[in-house]
Fold each of these.
Amino acid sequence: MPPFPEAARIALANTQLRTNLAHATATIRDKRARVVAEVDDWEELRTAGAATKDRVLLDLDTHLVRLEESLIRAGATVHWARDAEEACRIVADVAKAHHVDEVVKVKSMATQEIGLNEALAQEGISAWETDLAELIVQLGDDLPSHILVPAIHRNRAEIREIFLAGMARAGRPAPEGLDDEPAHLAEAARLHLREKFLRAEVAVSGANFAVAETGTLVVVESEGNGRMCLTLPQVLVSVVGIEKVVPTWADLDVFLQLLPRSSTGERMNPFTSTWTGVTPGDGPQEVHVVLLDNGRTRALADEVGRQALRCIRCSACLNVCPVYERTGGHAYGSVYPGPIGAILNPLLRGVGVDDQVDSLPYASSLCGACYDVCPVKIDIPSVLVDLRAQVVDAHRGGVPRPEAVAMKAAAATFRRPGLLRAAERLTRPGLAVVRRVGASAWTGARDLPPAPKESFRAWWKRTDGGRS
Amino acid sequence: MVTCINDALVPQTGRAVVTLLRRLGVDVDFPEGQTCCGQPMVNTGYLDEAVPVVRTFVRAFEGYDAVVTPSGSCAGCARHQHAIVARRSDDPAFVAAVEETAPKVFELSEFLVDVLGVEDVGASFPHRVTYHPTCHSLRMLGVGDRPLRLLRAVRGIDLVELPGAEQCCGFGGTFAVKNADTSVAMGADKARHVRSTGAEVLVAGDSSCLMHVGGLLSRERAGVRVMHLAEVLAAQEGT
């Protein structure tokens, strides 16, 4: 993927994308604001959510061991995966042990993060997405563009085209004469998916939460496809990020209030599925849980950034972000787009090695709207600034980039007022910074204000502070 | 504190602050040892480079009762980010100096409403005006509706609501050049909203945001002027 500014330029040129995004984000934004306003103790809930997550993160090892014990007691098999490769291999091995060439999936950020579908395809196993939006993305040979609404960048006319062109290749074809009525599109997806649910022997899921005291995994969703995946197939593999653990059911209570209002603007999510290991004769008879690190302990070691691990993937920050609204999710080059993606990716992957990752902390105007809506109070602007400092520090020592030269020059001018006075007489230092970093980047579309006759400083000196 | 952008590019804003504060009976000084709050370095990640700039800031404003600045962004940097820079220096005296200075820094509308306790500053400005609440004033400082309360008390003003007011204009410091295309896309939407109000003047509490949106309005020949809140509050047209 190209660095953010380049990817953004391509996205910005797509006017249909911008129209779709502006419409969709405004709709969810308004819905969220309305239902959040109904809750008198919203601020207290946010504080409680943040505190619970912090408490878990500080003692993550203890909670994870407890989760593992509970899971094993309930009949599940627990696997630990250090990285994407290990996690994918574990899932593929389970599928191969059952001699299947396909699995059904409930939408999961963790499995997208590790590139599970691609890894399974390498082993000759097809992974079918069963979430409506994920299905649209998969059939359209596309990438998700949003955490919660992966096909947010598509309108219904495009979705109709995708169904007509793609469904037959993947299973039951789209009904003849399909139009772009939302109900008809949903029915087409339903028929197509039903066939897959009934056929599949192995299902793959993620989890929104993992309750340590009982070894219970929790999935919240809106369509019921998750429940189908979790109950119909004989074998279930859940890939769960290690930060998803919560100590008790009482802790879960707070998050089940915070999540739906923040994400879909609903008071309660339509489906909350919880499952605890294996129940003889009911649901999957073989349950595997893959506890995934993949950079999470790296993020945990970052004093400022570790708060990003509180994230419950609600995507409220995406829907209020003015940058996301214009560029969409693909520009972030990751399954975690928007403000949270701009901090989570560098935290999980580390800075200083990849230009695309290093560009993400700068993909923000630092307006702070994300912090205002975050249900677990992640101070995204502060983490962005801290990560920017890490990016700058990672590049110190080599040949300085033009921006670094400009910053050093500006700082040298600003450290001594005498130098600033001299600089103001010669040039306009604010503009000097702008010019050095890239004057054409400014003046391509914006005029600069006319140069004033004298600086404030010079005026103050000449007039004795306006007194003469 | 006159910000570096005000000092070099829009000195009339600084002069308006002086006029306004004097009219309200404040003893105003401009310590010439000041330069910049350091935010361009801090927000771009150049914390080492910010250290001497923040030192200069703290030194310049020692001994004053209050530091008033016509910028929510610079006030926000002083109040919330100088401490990060000071900690970076490993110099306890510097950390202490920052801790002492930071709470004395006020954005103009905070100082007028909270410290001086005035909303009617005796201004007169008979024009159609719309107001953009800049992000750092709004979210980093939480100035709330203080600027609007000050504007509503201005004689003759026709204050019209700006659609999508709370959305960022896209300036964002070096974001405006590092992500110029996105910045311009955000600014263009802001400019469109400004034009839709039919206002003659766009007012905000940060010259940097005004420079960005004003630059777009000027390129579009929209015929809308941009003015800092301080200039409107200092104005006494027709009185």
Amino acid sequence: MHTPETIVALIKIVLMLGGLMTAAAYLVLVERWIAAWVQDRQGPNRVGIPLTKIRLFGLGQPLADGLKFIFKEDYTPAQVDKGLYTLAPIIILTAALAIFAVIPFGSVLPMISVPGISQPIELIVAPRLDVGLVYVFALSSIAVYGVILGGWASNNKYSFLGGLRSSAQLIAYEIPLGLGILGVVLMSGTLRLDKIITDQATSGVWNVALQPLGLLVFGVASFAEAARLPFDLPEAEQELVGGYHTEYAGMRLLLFLIAEFLHMVTAAFLLVILYFGGWHLWGLTGSGDIVTWPVAILRIVVLTAKVLAMILFFMMVRWSWPRFRFDQLMSLAWTVMLPLGVVNLLLMAVLTEYRSHLGGGWWAFAIISWVVSIGACVVAGLMAPLSVDNRPKPHVHPWDAETSLGD
Amino acid sequence: MKPNDPTIRWIEDPPMGLSGRMYLPLFVQGLTTTVKHLFSRKVTLQFPDERPKIGNPIIYRGVHRLNKDSQGRVKCVACFLCATACPAHCIDIVGAESPWPDREKYCESFTIDELRCIYCGMCEEACPVDAIELTSFLDLTGRSREEMIFDKEKLLSVYDKTKDREPSQSVRLGVPVL
């Protein structure tokens, strides 16, 4: 048995789960702060240490919220399908957490002289898993089941509508998501996320410079997959009460909410890893596999900072963009993002094949890529205006018909 | 007006320009606004720590008070005009014969249900002797409904608390205090 390696894996799992749960709790606070600041308010800043006057900028808020959720009555409505109703939040949270098995949260640690460990520890729960991105895709599709089951089992029209919208939206945006990833996979020739980072670190050129169109397609699709505004139709409060989790309360609602934040964290991780160089920063983190302790820690810090910046961007977009109408959402996915994704894939295929003939190294690659990307965006903008007037247009308007009858 | 009325002017959406149809340029514009507001001055008032600044406390309509005259007696002459004017019926007065020679009646008890009051200020308008007035005291709290029914003593004590800050109407107008 590889006991020391099992222990190392367990430690990594505990760190990952603990970190993610804490992060999800505190991201709720950050989300509320950003929301407040954007609206010129102060935001939650009063909950500190209990029974004292110490406020700590409201950092006690997540604990208070968590306690509130735990002590709420775990109410099951009478008309629900009990089995599925209980299963739905478990499925969605499990899928959201399991994705992080293949997502690196750093590079590697230097050799530790512990008997039984013969190679440097890689900071990823399932290292050297060759199907990394496929695994991410499979699990993010399973998350849809949680949403649909939640909406279906609740036996409530609002929940059901939310679940249906969510399934349609998530399935539609899986395709641009996949096309965005395929561009990166074509260039790197691997599905392993740690390998994709290493490639970018070795060349020193982040993928964002080489395939901006891929970033656009993948970014928009990941917003939609995380069900964040402007794509938060599954739980549009103003239209659907609460969407698929209308009938949920207490701990089970908390599981849904955590899963939602984890989807955003996943999207941020993937964006940073695929397009923004992961833990790489010029002149700071180096690129090799043999690292010293400061470099190893610096890489973790850089990756975390990038992910946090990406999450802040997600949160600010929420207050910059109005929600799409459902037909606009669909037309964006099928008539804009899908063609753009195909263009990006084609471009990457051609450029990767003929890179050696371009001569100028990365420069020619990047320039051609940017020119074609901007051109494709302009064409998409001219071809597919987003304001689709889908109201019925009868030849004789009802009120005209009425007056003519009166005569 | 019917929908086919000729005076109705139907307005169509203006056609989107290239930046509108490409969506991203306008999005950058919107994000810039968001970021600006992220760092702009916050307008929230930290209420229990900071107090709101009331523009003119004399005309603010907060908690009521019963004014006293120069000898410290209640000014009210139990004419019931305020109770009659009150649209919420929250004023209850019991009149009695005055023990003082300069007026016939005074209020034996004077009760205002502050929870029922709508703070319209009609009682203040109606009062012929400027006995009842609304102060600028605005955060009124209590632990029971009974506590929020103010009696004569409490209304007079509000006068003692606010008389320096907000002189009564007759003082401001130069009318000699009775």
